[in-house]
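From the shared-data thread, chain only:
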Amino acid sequence: MLHGPARRVIAHVLTGTGFGPRAQALAAVAALQDWKDCPQTLRNRLFDAVCALEPDQAPPAHHQVLQERLTGDPALLAAQLAPVAAACHHDPGASWACLAALVRLWSHSAEDERPALRALLVSGLSALEPRGGTSPAALVQLARTLPTEPGDAIDPAMDLLDLAGDPDILSAYRRVARHLQRSESMPRLVSLIGGLASQRLETATDRDGALWSVCVGAAACRLLAPALPGDLLATAAAQLALQYWWGARQGGETRPSERIAGSGDLAAAVAAGERALARRTARALAQDPARFWSTVWILLERAPLDDAAFILRLGPLLRAASLRAGGAICPDDAAAIAALLAAHSPCISPS
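Structure, as tokens:
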């Protein structure tokens, strides 16, 4: 992340009383400024559009962590604030995404700005709306119901496919808990959970935004993983898994349209508002990152950037664009981006 854009962004974050979607989007557009394959005019438009949004608002929160010594090291900051993100459990995906956004900005902040930035994050996390979260205390209670003897090893990629069908939270937790014992596998587990949420969005409605939040939170936890103690990363994985389970049960199934099935044209799928087809096309196109991103940039250049909801959801898109070397993108991230664009297709000119 370039220092100049980061400094501008921090000034905008400090105008609010919380740390939420706008702060996440601000951190993302700051990181995008050194993404040379994105046209400069588009980078400038996105930056200005996010800066023009209303500041995040939240009532002041009082927490013991605010009395602790501040560090200039982003990794140490992540470790210090991760227990707060876990405890502010109402929307786990958003909690972890907010923490990751602050960590990315931290090394560009001035020493006298850091107490306020930390306080804004704690206030923002405390004000999150409930969206399928599970508290660390509730996880402990669920863990007490587990068998004392470990079961046979099961591949989480196969086992978690059935998570959405578990009838209650206890059954869901028991399935997830089978995979929480090996700290070295936690980043993969988090990625699997984010992938499940992304895939679910292809065939289900997301009435409360929980599935989208899981996608965002999983991406954030991949960024935070090197700095988090194993037990906290396991807590994050469990929270995201149960948020996915909750979100999958809230949304109804949808039938993918076949109006332009098989075209393989991402721009056409987006312009037609065909979310399921756009996601499938994007997954395939992720194998050709240059072509994928050039299509995304063209679509965004056609979009009027005056829809606040659209702009705020661009955060995950921009984060994916700026985190991976050489523009590489995983299929799940590509599918999430395509779904966002297709959902806002009325805003995007077809040509």
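The chain is about 60% helix and 0% strand.
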